[in-house]
Structures are given as C-alpha cells and as structure tokens.
C-alpha cells in the first residue's frame, strides 16, 4: 500500500505542561479508494502531538495524558495503594497508574477486550458488567480500593443524546461498583459525555463524597464531548 503524500505547513506549538510540542503540520492528500472521513482521521493522528508523545514515551494511547493531567490537577495517584481501572484496554491508564502509584500498589485492570500485560498490574479479560467481574475484582484487591478509575465509553453513534445515555449507563455501573469497594477517603474518576452526570446520580454522589468536580483535561480533543468527573473523599 502506498504511503500517503504529505506536505508540511505551520509552526511548532507547545501543548499543555508536558513539553509536548506540535511540529509542522502534516497534510494528507486524498487518495483513490480512501474515504474523506478516513483521510481526516489520518491527518488528525499525524498532527496530534499527544499521539507522537505517546509513541515516544511508550504509552499505548494518547489517553494516558488525560489521566496524567487529571492527576496533576487533583493529585489522587500519589497515595493510592489499591487501584481498579475499569475499561482498561489498550492499557494507557494502567501504565500511568503503575508508573505514578507506590511501588507496592495493587493494580487491577479489566476490559472485555484483550490487552497486553502491564508490569505491576493484574489484567482481567472480562465483561465488567458480568456478575462474576465484581466478585473477581473485589477478591484481587482484597475487598477495598483507594481509587476506582473508568475511561469507559459506549461506541458512538453520532447522535449526541443516544451517546450520552449509553455512556452514562456505564458511568452509573462504574459508580455502583466504586460505591461498594472504595475505602473511606477514596476517589472515583470517570469519563462522562456532554451533559455531564445526570442529576439523580450526581446528588447521590454528593452525599457520599467530600468534593465532586467536572474537568476537561487539555489532552481531551477540543471537539470531543467528553469530560471527566472526579469525586474525592469518599465518606464510606
């Protein structure tokens, strides 16, 4: 297959606070047999400084920087000794946790999709929504967790309301799990889509946590409807 023809334009630009710099723009010319949407996706990937940084630093996805930036804002990884990563594949968030949490931390990632091992973590290839998953996760962490993180999102349909509702169902499932396993003082981090967390669920969370914030990290693409809920200080 022929490589896409590229042209360069633009100037370098520093991104966020990680020394991530965008180089000159790569422009992908349309090619016979390639859809316009595919051309746009390829151009976006080639010009994404987070994609380049992930390759350079050994992270499996650009999403790793979303967790790094969330932690820089809220500082929840440093003292977390027991962590559950829901919807972990391909493993970028699990890699960040293994790097930034204490060396003796118990880290468990789960996803229905297969993923390569991550040093220092236990990986479960299971459907998080299955009856067996919660019991197995609880067994592996010894019953309680300091931190539950979720980057889960339902496949997008292009219909904003539908995408929001489907992703919120996953957020709600992640929350019910976190509510059962978090230690007092623990933290819950989850991706939500445009519209934020539904009011009923948010009110329930407010009764169980000291603070709840919504935050869109710089690594989250400008056009993406995603944001992140960070709930800290679980009251038990």
From TrEMBL:
Residues 1-16 have a biased composition (Basic residues). Pfam families: FtsJ. S-adenosyl-L-methionine binds at residues 91, 93, 111, 127, 151. Its main location: cytoplasm. Its EC number is 2.1.1.166. One of its GO terms (cellular component) is cytoplasm. Residues 59-234 form the Ribosomal RNA methyltransferase FtsJ domain. Keywords: Cytoplasm, Methyltransferase, rRNA processing, S-adenosyl-L-methionine, Transferase. It is found in: Cytoplasm. The active site is at residue 191. Residues 1-34 are annotated as: Disordered. GO terms for molecular function: rRNA (uridine-2'-O-)-methyltransferase activity. It catalyses: uridine(2552) in 23S rRNA + S-adenosyl-L-methionine = 2'-O-methyluridine(2552) in 23S rRNA + S-adenosyl-L-homocysteine + H(+). It comes from the Bacteria. Specifically methylates the uridine in position 2552 of 23S rRNA at the 2'-O position of the ribose in the fully assembled 50S ribosomal subunit. Belongs to the class I-like SAM-binding methyltransferase superfamily. RNA methyltransferase RlmE family. This is Ribosomal RNA large subunit methyltransferase E.
